[in-house]
Amino acid sequence: MKIRSPIVSVLGHVDHGKTTLLDYIRGSTIADKEAGGITQHIGATEIPNDTIEEICGNFISRLTIKDLIPGLFFIDTPGHAAFTSLRKRGGALADLAILIVDINDGFKPQTYEALNILKMYKTPFIVVANKIDRIFGWETHEGASFSESFNQQAQSVKQELDLKLYELVGTLHKEGFQSERFDRVSNFASQISIIPISARSGEGIIEVLAMLLGLAQEYLTEQLEINEDAPAKGTILEIKEEVGLGLTVDSIIYDGVLRTNDEIALINSSNEVVTTKIRSILRPLPLEEMRDSKKKFRKLDEVVAAAGIKIAAPNLDDVVSGSPLRVLSEEEDVEEQLLKEIEDITINTEDE
Ligand code: GDP
User: Which residues lie across from 279 on neighbouring strands?
Assistant: First the structure.
């Protein structure tokens, strides 16, 4: 048994800052490359624990999980379609979620929609109240923790922030969630943490990373246990034509091991099972190598979850995004399991 990184998805209303947040997290850790760096997957970015520890310092010193899990695995495509169509074990393909809300704008239709998705899948999540730098009078402290920056603000600014924050608390309450500013939470099991941040200046990102690790420790250690020798389970993100490779599928593997020449089962647009044999498993080349070569990908013999990879194989024409992926095995009737799995899907194709 091995513990894999929790898969994290970012949800929220359009323009509330999903992309900016993901970019900041990727950027700030790329700058820390020497400290362990990040692994660029297909469709995802993995931030190793060493890097998170380096960024978060004391914020996570009390967590025990940081020595257990390898890191945080962020799905690159934000949004509800990506979340709901990416499923696993009857839930969505995300172990944890960040619900992002523009603190100046409050809850909007897609924020409610996201909250309902999280409710339905019982996904543990944190709320981030974004764009605090736009609160009147806010003095920006690039990359600082929220607490550090907040302490240096004028009294009126602090009050304004809390006023807006408690509007979010009120809205969440109406939706059936107890919540509180993260540093005032007394019971993490019953209260949702709200972390004020600026995805643009990076203020509060330290607390976001630390809190995600905390949630993983609280709720997920069992869910994250994987069997490194078991046939892989995954989800298809996208079907793409690649020069020289033909049709490929980008997928997230959340359990087991996937090997070249494995026979896999997928679902097509008529909800039928399609089987094919993996010709190659591909990962993006690290940026510096990509500059020196025309190639974009590196071939791998095998990958262990969690991983984001591209698969080249025949017979992919009619495969749909959101399809589950299973390696065929002699012990299990994988085809039947797949059909059962998609029978349960109700909302996977509702695009944003
Ligand atoms: P998405 O649609 O949720 O992915 O939102 P984006 O990340 O594209 O952000 C929408 C707009 O808000 C962009 O112009 C961002 O630069 C801006 N934005 C995002 N986060 C912040 C923030 O923390 N502060 C400020 N001032 N602007 C932000």
Answer: none
Amino acid identity at 41: H
Angle between helices 49-56 and 18-30 (to 10 degrees): 100
Hey, which of 16, 20, 75, 133 would you mutate to test ligand 1's pocket, going by the most ligand atoms within 8 Å of its Cβ? 20
DSSP 263-284: EEEEEBTTS-EEEEE--EEEEE
Q: Provide the whole-model pTM.
A: 0.89
Q: Are 201 and 222 in contact (CB under 8 A)?
A: no
Burial (0-12, 13-18, 19+ Cβ within 10 Å), 42:
buried
* 3-state class (DSSP) for residue 333: coil
Q: Is the CB of 15 under 6 A from ligand 1?
A: yes
User: Which of ligand 1's atoms lies nearest the C-alpha of 134?
Assistant: 26
Per-residue pLDDT of the chain (352 residues; tens, 9 = 90+): 789 999 999 999 999 999 999 989 888 665 555 445 677 888 888 988 888 888 887 777 766 666 678 899 998 876 555 555 544 433 457 899 999 999 999 999 999 988 988 888 888 999 999 999 999 999 999 999 999 999 999 999 999 999 999 999 999 999 999 999 999 998 888 999 999 999 999 999 999 999 998 888 888 878 899 989 999 999 888 899 998 899 999 999 999 999 999 999 999 988 899 999 999 999 988 765 656 667 789 999 999 999 999 999 999 999 988 888 999 988 788 888 888 777 765 444 344 3
Give the CA angle between residues 271, 273, 278 to the nearest 5°. 130
Residues 6+ apart with CB under 8 A from 147: 183, 207
Give me ligand 1 centre to Cα 5, in Å. 27
CB of 199 shorter than 6 A to ligand 1? yes
The enclosing H or E element of 83 equals: helix 80-85
Classify the complex by whether its ipTM is higher than 0.90, answering yes or no. Answer: yes
